[in-house]
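Researcher: First entry.
Model:
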Amino acid sequence: MRKNGKPSTDPTTNQSKASKRPNILFILADDQSPFDLKVYNQRSILQTPRLDQLAAEGMVLDAAYQMGSWSGGVCTPSRHMIMSGRSVWHIPDRRANSNKNPNVGDPQLVPPDLDQFTLPAVFNRAGYDTMRTCKRGNSYDKANARFQVRHEATKRGATDADGSAWHADRVLDYLDQRSASNDRDPFLIYFGFSHPHDPRNGKPELNEKYGAINHTDPSSPPPANPKQPPLPINYLPEHPFPHGHPGLRDEEKVSGVWKRRDERTIRNEIGRQFACSENIDRQIGRVLDKLRSQGELDNTYVIYTADHGMAIGRHGLQGKQNLYEHTWRVPMIVKGPGIAAGSRAAGNVYLMDVLATLCDLCGLEVPDTNEGVSFVPVLMGKQPAIRDVLYGVYSGGTKPGMRSVKQGDWKLIKYDVLDGTVRRTQLFNLAANPHEFLAPHHDSDLVNQVGSSVQANQVNLADAPEHAQTLARMEALLLEQMRAHDDPYRLWDQPTSELTKTDRAAATSEVR
């Protein structure tokens, strides 16, 4: 069990000093690619003035990642990693008898008492007031139960009472109660939304703004509308090969989308995504205005992120069960004391680094169960990133699944799915090919349809002889990362000799 070092700030314990500790407002969207936001993608027409302001007053991290998943519901391991500060193969599932993570029965890899060392438990012991509002389900129930004040409801409707405003109202009520009781304790508020997760039922006026309808007819595509967002720059009408999770709801059973990947469906769906996202922005603004009026905002670290990204037409995919940048990456914007306004850094952070970082910002001891790394040095402008290599996994469909590794400009993705019938390798130079264009993106009709400009070298480079050494290096790096993270599977061209007999069987089996 790996442990993290001590925080760079000294913890304080007496009440007078505790009252000066910073507050934390941790904001989590449900299913949002960073490329939805204009701060990451100038092509986007999504309007989020409060997030833009947050970015202008704080730091944008360009390389924040959700490590991965052993479940089709990527939300579940993601939120376990946020809460526990542990890596993807070292966390439990919601249900005690789940074997989605094959390591769950090993107490050295997945501590049975882990919930005692999660985000709310750590901050409770430090004298913080802790509050949570978020969706119900696909989360870390035992950790969630440790918040002192908790409101759990999945609000994905098109009204204030049944949408994102409901979560904001819970936070505003909580802040009013604190003010009325003259509560001076520092707070940790976990402000989670149920949107823009499907079915992406946007408010009518925002849907109209983005030319979208809450489409429910599986027999026909939605109407075209010039107000709709453009197609993603790396849009494809279908993925070039099966990606390994047949029939999954987020790929084929989303209301309004189903199996459709045509232009009208995708543009309408992005319009709905944007309608939900702009409403989230409005609700964030309400809470930030309240904190400012109460004199709390200047002493509050505000973190905005998402549990993972989303495809919505990119690479011919719809959901979150892939390792392309639009889905592996997450938005990450942080504002607070000591963070330079308008700053930007790569970061190379995982969502599991949140626990260590919040402890560091507040001067708290990081629990020994934590495996994340504080990125406070990045936030304070002392270094550009906290790690050199990033590892990604999707093993929620057929096994072993997908794996990725990134170092510098180079990124490798490997697919070993559908009982060995699909085995593919992709190699990208993200400096030269940031959108991970593939050969189908070069089709002249598609280029005209999307309005993209694709260069000859913007392709999968795995078969290019001039990059053979880079490919070999990245392959070795991936295996090293899989071993370091106790990945219980191996891909078709990797050794299984170091795995146990049980693991070797699992590493070569197909599990649907």
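Researcher: Second entry.
Model:
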Amino acid sequence: MASNHRNGDSHIHHLPKKPKLSSTSLITPSEIQSEFCHHDPSVARINNGSFGSCPDSVIKAQQVLQLEFLRQPDHFYFNCLKEGILRSRTVIKQLINARHVDEVSIVDNATTAAAIVLQRTAWAFAEGRFEKGDVAIMLHYAYGAVKKSVEAYVTRAGGCVIEVQMPFPVNTNDEIIHEFRKALERGKENGRKIRLAVIDHITSMPCVVIPVKELVKICREEGVDQVFVDAAHAIGCTDVDMQDIGADFYTSNLHKWFFCPPSIAFLYSRSSPKCLDLHHPVVSHEYGSGLAVESAWIGTRDYSAQLVVPKALDFVNRFEGGIEGIKKRNHDKAVEMGQMLAKAWGTNLGCPPEMCASMIMVGLPASLAISSDSDTLKLRAHLRENFGVEVPIYYRAPKDGEVGVITGYARISYQVYNTFEDYTKFRDAVNKLVSEGFTCNLLSN
């Protein structure tokens, strides 16, 4: 595909303003349930954060595109694919308040986006632009796959990686900012330069909304070369505004909280000479045409997930307030359900309501005796297989001198398809385990 993406949005009209919906045109509760009727009705699915959810109307639109490709692949490739991906990028550009569509590329997922940014960092070490021992900063609670990517691209290239030690449970943004500043101080010791900061917008496990705008500002003040925000959960879950956040690179999945099918994410790259030279890790025919075009063709594969973004936006706009309304209602319900569970179990939340989005950490009863990461996986499987509850669990190791503290936290999500009964099912399952004297050491390895 020849590249004319520099002029990509010159011939595309701005998205029309979302029409005000009358009460009769708003999506109804029964229509919501119909859109997600493919979900297993026997499972309380309170884990939207892991894989997201896709409504039936978007799935049908995807299937139409898949069949169009299979019917006449050459026509689809030459006449439809590029234009369709550009439409999706234009929708994303406006959703995230990017300045230009050229700043937006579509990739498989946030893990791929991290590899793209960190690959560039590795090249800088290899080509002598960075010196051995220069520093990359990341949060201790960075996503596991991103940590591996940092190891593969930064550590192996000769960079030094410093982790920000994050508190949990956490009570204020100031606690996070304090630890971030301490890590920057360590990074600058002995005259070292901090080349990259990798900052989560919403950490995965444990989940907390990070004061990303404030941390980006601190990075600018402290001379950090570039900032990459891993916001896998962000779009559709919390506020995403590129001009307000001010990062150099920012990625978020659209299949987690924006109702797209797996897998699709965007990678924003700020228009700046320092943000050029990004390439897809799969080198194909479009290498050198710019990341957006490279990503739009990495060989024969199913691109339908990248093409249905406008259809997902149509679905979102059936709700009162559109995406803003969904985010607020999901947040409020996540807090309400979290508080209900914590009260029922005599525990606590992992953060105050203002530090969560559509997910929140809820302490599990200490009597369950969760004592390792292995215990969390076994308990999660036990809840899935014996109670029909799907929820991830986090192990929080006790600190020195702590006795009888909560060591297990459940990460509950709330999405539009969830009901109150999903959470009472979880509540009652845990209460049953407690009443029976269950502990995690009763589970087989």
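Model: Note on the second entry: Residues 176 and 258 are 27 Å apart (CA to CA).
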